[in-house]
Amino acid sequence: MTKVITYGTYDLLHQGHINLLKRAKALGDFLIVGVTNDNFDRERGKLNVHNNVLERVEAVKATGLADQIIIEDYVGQKIDDIQKYDVDIFAIGSDWEGKFDYLNEFCEVVYLPRTEGISSTMLREESQSIVNVGIIGCGRVAERFPSEAQIVNGVNVVAAYDTDFEKCNTFAHKFEGIEPCKELGDLFNRVDAVYIATPHLAHYQCIKDSIQAGKHVLCETPMVLNGDQAKELYKLARDKTLILMEANKTAHCPAFNHLIVMIKSGLIGEVVDIEASLSQLLNKGGREFDANQAGGAMFEQGSYPLLPILKLMGIQYESLELFSRMENGVDIHTKGLFRYPKAVCSFKVGLGVKTEGDLVISGTKGYAYVPAPWWKTDYFELRYEDQNDNKKFFYKWDGFGLRYEIQEFISCIYNHRFSSARLRRRESIQMAYIMQQFSERKNFYEI
To answer: 411-433, pLDDT tens digit by residue?
Structure first.
């Protein structure tokens, strides 16, 4: 039996792809198709993928041409796959001619003719309308957004608004093509979607105004500090067929997502404990220490350590106790203790207390360790009783990390996905209820 292998992104699967698959299949008796992972595409600078890897795999499967489909995760995998699957022929499009000659050492390399006049890039340009985005809130967090958005295909930042117009004007003139708006309505008239980077207490009204104006919304984390408000806003967005997404950059980090998938696949057994910490020593004259502006460690940082706990253990915990050290009405340190039916999880956040900012996920077969700063995951380890079984995983964290959430936001708009698997609506809503529990001082102990 002659085995043939070929690889591709297969984004916006078209007749050109199908023709290539037919030509590859005709070379032998068994066709293996490698579909590039989303993370692998990102590492190659391709933040223009319209369909995620599962959608692309399903599209290839639907052609009926592939006898086996695999995922391409890393550079150098082609050699490993050729040897692993005992491949006889490596087939690839002729636009790559000469680039894979090195594989002749392992199997025959065949360059297949492409179908003239059609490509994913061309289809993407024809079918993908540009999403014009406006920024609401021109503080230091928003400074990172324009440069990150430039990396993502299909998005254009065109306007900005702040209650302080001079601040907005100064912000807009730092970036090409951004128009400062004196009125929020003016911004809405120019855009399809908004990125909200205002102080926490302004999020709810800004989101509601934006949705009622018919705009998709990406809002900085924590989205709101009240669970009922979160439910209301997500329902309002869905009723108006709009995307509402919380901009938690860790949730969209490629390495963090890979970690979650590996843990859920059982590589460390059943999870029985999670410990997540995050802390900063900031100038106490800032907004973060102002109780009237919802300052404090929990509101500033809490959504990040809550993320791995809710993603891995779910939202149905039995109890949550919160312990805080308070100064001038804000918490400079908070520790939370979750009790689940078969697990206990804890988190620590601090603005005036410094701690090791790592993440440890303990299981019945081993544990995962992510060193500080774990919320910018670029490396983690799976550790076992026998150290020879330990595995280390390295990833690239690009820029400020906002490009990953922007790409997912735009993808959700194009594909009409109202809840991202990376941070589901129910998880975002539960985070808001936890913030509400803290603000209402329920199961709260001052230390």
So the answer is: 899 888 899 989 999 999 999 99
